[in-house]
Design goal:
The chain is mostly helical and 121 residues long. The protein has one domain. It contains 3 helices and no strands. The longest helix is centred in the last third of the chain and has 33 residues. The protein is elongated, with a radius of gyration of 18 Å.
């Protein structure tokens, strides 16, 4: 690939959030839940060397924590729920949100790493 190619960060982030190749936006970035493709079948961009490592779980915890903390506080202060009822409601919601956000966070970081040419050589 040409080293001088202009890479649009916002386009790469948007494509990543949709689970698409940050470069072309046409092909899927993952072959399974979190397993990224080695290369894009459409534009042939190599994705095997880009790793988000701990960034995606960090962002997932940050987002889910900020979304759920007010809900948990409100439920606790209302006094309408016993602790076991809160646990029965909140644990599945927390797990579901984490499973929903994690692959998008990974793809977001992969897009950013690619667009900013931040991958290690």
């Amino acid at each position: 690939m040409d080293r001088g190619e202009k890479r649009n960060l916002w386009s790469a982030l948007g494509n990543g959030l949709r689970g698409r190749c940050p470069r072309c936006g046409r092909a899927a970035l993952f072959r399974s839940y979190l397993k990224q493709v080695d290369s894009c079948p459409e534009c042939h961009e190599n994705w095997s060397e880009i790793r988000s490592d701990d960034a995606a779980p960090w962002l997932t915890i940050l987002i889910v924590g900020h979304v759920m903390a007010p809900v948990m506080i409100a439920m606790s202060k209302s006094g309408r729920f016993a602790p076991w009822e809160m646990s029965a409601i909140l644990i599945p919601v927390l797990i579901g949100l984490c499973l929903l956000v994690l692959p998008r966070a990974k793809a977001l970081f992969m897009g950013a790493i690619w667009a900013l040419r931040a991958q290690s050589s």
